[in-house]
Amino acid sequence: MATLIARDPAPDLILFNGSIHTLWPELPRCSAIACKDGRITALGDDSQVRVLAGSQTEQIDLAGRTVIPGLNDAHNHMLELGLKLGKLQVENCRSIAEMVALVREAAAQTPPGTWIVGEGWNESLFAEGRLPTRQDLDAATSAHPVLLKRFFNMDLVNSQALELAGVGRHTPDPQGGRIERDESGEPNGILRAAAKLFCRQLLPEPSESELIAALDAAGKAYLAVGITSILDPGLYPGEMRAYLRARNQGMLRVRVNLLPSWHGFREDEAREQLDARAAELGVFSGLGDEWLRLGALKMAIDGGTTSRTAWMFQPFLGEDKVHDFNRLDPEDLREFFARGHELGWDIGIHAIGDRAHHEAALAFADVLDSAPPRDHRHNLIHGYFASEASLLHMARHNLAVVIQPTFIYYEGDDLFRDVGSELAHRYKPARTYLDRGIRVVATSDIPSTAHYNPFVGLYSLVTRKTWQGTLIAPHEAISREEALYAYTVAGAWLTREEQFKGPLAPGFLADLAVLDRDYFTCPEDAIRAIEVDITVVGGKVAYQKA
User: Fold this and answer.
1) Helices then strands (H, E): number in the chain?
2) CA angle 187, 191, 197 (to 5 degrees)
3) What is the pLDDT of residues 463-481, one digit of tens each?
């Protein structure tokens, strides 16, 4: 039976003859949906919904295709991705030689002395089976400084870039970072964690117009894969201003939740300056509308596993000690959490290593045990390895976990190299989280991974397979419906939008994606190949596959 609102005024859009999966418990499946003024006004059978049409109603015959709620990538660096799209694309390189060839081609078209910047390389894909070095890049050009960002927390630079940054044999490692060196003690071109800043700080800052253009480009890319909402974490005031300008200029194509950067990002920001950012605005989580909202404060403790910069209980394989790449003093966690919580902010904290996750959950628990109760949406971001104690704290205090299943697919094979089999098979324990009553939010974290495609993420949650077919903790697989919920409804809860976004339900935002095959019944291996035929945002067709 249809759930109808009113016959007048007539809908703007009706989709019919489909297989619509609503994630709304009162009507999980239907064949038709009507939209008016950006919201869903009716769901039901074709005959029940189509009768509402007026002379100006657009009607789309789905021809049996599957419809799902618009996907919500609730940890997605949209601005960075948009800028990346204008740089050298190296995420698909399957060898160092291929990457060097791209740099050589770029050098032939770039004025001497101008930076060549690329992003996204992953050494686990390289046929050479090693990390690249400055000598590899030097073979491509000696007339340009080159900086190629790994997908996370490590840069490769050439000799000219090191020279411009003043980095040489006698340059000490910075706090929280490391300059990798060759056997003779010379920098080999790999800069880890905080050492990245030596060269990154020399790159020209993008203008506001370039930032707005980047948001427009990223939004178009997201619509093509069914993403209708994102959360961009760790932003600075100028970047947030660009989002507002883009919204005012009609260049914000998906809904956005902004997370201001807080502790654990820039060493040149004093504690007092960061506290002022949280306190003196006079606002807190939830300000905004259905297109642009203010979310949590973003914090960060450590780095990552495959860059060997995460905060671990035990050293990475082949190392004799746990190195300190932490981005803030863990002793300050309780103070920061208490301050943000008191001010009314939700807090999301990047905590990848098993010790980082454990300590963050414990610090949250200590603060919440002594603070007056309030509705919060605090969360641990990444959630790689959960200790029993952290699971108990998270369940008891309603701490969500924001995980990136795309990491399973793109970097899962390297876990065995870096942390060993035992920890690898505890990686991103989605099944355990859900069984413990912990809310799971699934996201991409682009560009800290190779691609934002949510169907790769859904595939990874359901199959637990890497791109090479390796199983990573198969006992942590979840169902297709649970995975889709984590990519839609759970993200709306995280951003305090669960009353009007997430499922396809009467009165909710009319954001949805029409797929080229049935996500729920296609073979498991076909999930990652799903394509989006139509994306609807606010009851209007925002993307249609040519």
Assistant:
1) 18, 26
2) 115
3) 999 999 999 999 999 999 9
Q: DSSP label at 135?
A: H
Question: Over pLDDT 90: what percentage of the chain?
Answer: 86
pLDDT tier, 8 (very low <50, low <70, confident <90, very high otherwise)? low
Q: Is 2 helix (H, G, I), strand (E, B) or coil?
A: coil
Residue 142 within a domain = yes
Mean pLDDT over each residue of the chain, to the nearest integer: 94
Residue 94: what pLDDT?
Answer: 93
Chain-centroid distance of CA 184 in Å reads 39
Q: Cβ neighbours of residue 286 under 8 Å, at least 6 residues apart?
A: 293, 294, 496
Distances (CA, A) of 205 to 192, 202, 371, 455: 21, 9, 41, 33
Binning the chain into helix, strand and coil, the percentages to the nearest 5 are 35, 20, 45
What per-residue string of b and e applies to 443-479 under the rule 16 or more CB within 10 Å gives b?
bbbbbbbbbbbbbbbbbbbbbbbbbeeeebbeebbbe
Scan for tokens 């790994």, then name that residue: 150
Cβ within 8 Å of residue 252, ≥6 positions away: 215, 219, 243, 246, 291, 292
Alpha helices in 377-513 (DSSP H): 388-396, 405-418, 420-424, 430-435, 454-463, 480-486, 489-494
How many Cβ atoms from other residues are within 10 Å of residue 81's Cβ?
Answer: 24
The answer to whether residues 136 and 111 touch, using CB atoms and an 8 Å cutoff, is no
Q: Are 476 and 431 in contact (CB under 8 A)?
A: yes
**Do 8 and 92 belong together in one domain?**
no
Q: Please say which residue of 165, 200, 235 terminates a domain.
A: 200
This prediction's pTM: 0.90
* CATH label of the domain that carries residue 94: 3.10.310.70
Q: Residue 27: its pLDDT value, please?
A: 97
pLDDT digits (tens, 9 = 90+) for 123-133: 888 999 899 99
- What's the CATH number where 60 sits? 2.30.40.10
Ranges 123-127, 290-294, 404-408, 514-518: which has the least confidence: 123-127
Q: What is the DSSP letter of 471?
A: B
